[in-house]
Specification:
Blueprint: H1 3-10, H2 16-41, H3 60-68, H4 90-101, H5 120-128, H6 151-161, H7 183-191, H8 214-225, E1 239-247, H9 253-265, E2 269-270, E3 275-277, H10 278-282, E4 293-298, E5 301-307, H11 312-325, E6 328-329, E7 358-360, E8 367-373, E9 377-384, E10 390-394, E11 403-408, E12 417-424, E13 428-438, E14 441-451
Parallel strand pairs: 1-10
Antiparallel strand pairs: 1-9, 2-8, 3-7, 4-5, 6-7, 8-9, 10-11, 12-13, 13-14
Length: about 450
């Protein structure tokens, strides 16, 4: 029996012509992919690769391979996480298959239960290609887009998606799929090299009723498309580079605002080369978000009140964490009048859509921002790698300067060591000088600011 006859036996009448057309298109696409795979994989990946959550995974090279082909864009809105151990639902698998085969859209709506799914177009595309028949035979007018995919179901989808790789009568590969309705397709994808089993090194089990995870999907598609796994260079160890704390009076409305902004930023990851913008991440500080009207400073004098008043204390705290960590400071904007709860000169005010705080991750390691707060303090920690340079600091209220402690000066050749001086007084002009030293080479940065009070 040819693969055309086999495919025909599984399909409802009237769909074969469409399936053949889509399948042949898939064949051509796969061949093109095979021809270009070496070109796509030739690009050197940054340390740690595209995603921050798959380091150390045995599937990481395959994840990078399908990312390079546009088969995955990750599992979050920023495209920095893959969620390798996340289970795959039927909607997601439709999207994976459609991208892998570059299937065209169809105007036919095959199912009644996917109208609210973001994957509806993908679902209809794989139905048009005969890769799925639905989930409620014999009617098959439903797809069950949120249903989780098991390994046996995955085998049948892969066998239909890549029929040119399948043989008609493959040998029995596993001992745990006897009587399973998908056994033939399980053996087909095993014979094609798409699966190796689930119990290495013996690999005589397939685990047909196990749920499919996203990292497994990556390996399935890498093997089916003949892609070359692309293992990225190892990431440097993630360690705490800096921690900085400022203090405030308990229980004021401004404290609610400071702590809310800290919670909003907590867990944010600044990727290598990325410019972080506090405005972009937090957005406007509105009462609808929970920010309270509180006092603020204008032209060196206190005023009342705006939603989000007081959040400049968080701006100062994160500014100091970045400043002493040695990262690339993008903005420098102290208050118009000096407040002794902040260090003189080394501080930063905030006004949404007017005065933003920005910095750039100028290293090859992601920066993980962690925040915490109490009723009287707020703390920002930055985790990354600056050649083992590690520093902690806090600002005692009423002091002109902060207390900075170097925990580890790091290696001479790689550490970016930070020192700073502040001269001048408030009111009046203040000069801030930061020196960054690596391998005996020092870069000096200078900022000036005039306090009116």
């Amino acid at each position: 029996m040819t693969w055309v006859q086999s495919l025909n036996s599984d399909l409802p009448p009237g769909r074969l012509t469409s399936v053949l057309r889509r399948t042949l298109l898939g064949t051509i696409v796969a061949l093109v992919v095979l021809g270009l795979a070496s070109v796509a994989q030739a690009e050197e990946l940054p340390p740690g690769g595209t995603f921050i959550d798959d380091d150390g995974s045995v599937h990481e090279g395959d994840i990078e391979a399908i990312a390079a082909e546009g088969i995955t864009t990750g599992c979050d809105s920023r495209g920095i996480r893959f969620c390798p151990r996340g289970v795959v639902d039927r909607g997601q698998i439709a999207a994976f298959i459609r991208r892998a085969l570059d299937l065209p859209s169809t105007e036919v709506d095959y199912f009644t239960d996917d109208n609210n799914s973001i994957f509806e177009n993908d679902i209809n595309a794989i139905a048009e290609a005969g890769i799925t028949n639905g989930c409620n035979p014999p009617d098959n007018d439903r797809y069950c887009p949120n249903g989780l995919v098991h390994r046996d179901e995955m085998a049948s989808m892969m066998a239909r998606a890549f029929p040119w790789l399948m043989t008609d009568n493959p040998p029995d590969q596993f001992i745990d799929d006897e009587t399973n309705i998908h056994e033939l397709n399980i053996n087909k994808i095993a014979e094609a090299g798409i699966t190796k089993g689930c119990n290495p090194p013996a690999n005589d089990w397939y685990c047909p009723r196990d749920l499919v995870t996203r990292d497994q999907i990556a390996s399935f598609f890498t093997r089916a498309l003949g892609l070359e796994p692309n293992v990225p260079p190892p990431q440097k160890p993630i360690e705490r580079v800096s921690r900085f704390t400022t203090f405030f009076n308990c229980c004021e409305d401004r404290v609610t605002n400071i702590r809310l902004m800290a919670r909003t930023i907590d867990g944010y990851v600044v990727m290598p080369g990325e410019e972080f913008s506090l405005d972009s991440v937090v957005g406007p500080t509105t009462e609808a978000k929970g920010y309270l009207p509180a006092g603020y400073l204008i032209n060196g004098e206190g005023a009342c009140c705006v939603p989000g008043g007081g959040v400049s204390q968080f701006g100062t705290t994160i500014f100091n964490a970045v400043f002493w960590a040695g990262y690339d400071v993008g903005t420098f904007r102290p208050h118009t009048g000096w407040l002794s709860r902040y260090p003189l000169g080394i501080e930063h005010t905030l006004i949404y859509n007017s005065i933003d705080f920005r910095f750039t991750n100028d290293t090859t390691t992601p920066i993980y921002i962690e925040t915490s707060s109490t009723s009287t303090s707020v703390t920002v920690e930055l985790w990354g790698n600056q050649g083992d340079w590690q520093v902690v600091g806090h600002h005692p209220r009423g002091n002109r300067s902060s207390v900075i402690s170097v925990i580890d000066a790091g290696s001479w050749s790689e550490a970016k060591r930070v020192s700073a001086t502040v001269t001048g007084n408030a009111p009046g002009q203040v000069k801030v000088v930061r020196k960054l030293t690596t391998a005996g080479v020092t870069t000096t940065e200078t900022w000036w600011w005039t306090y009116v009070s």
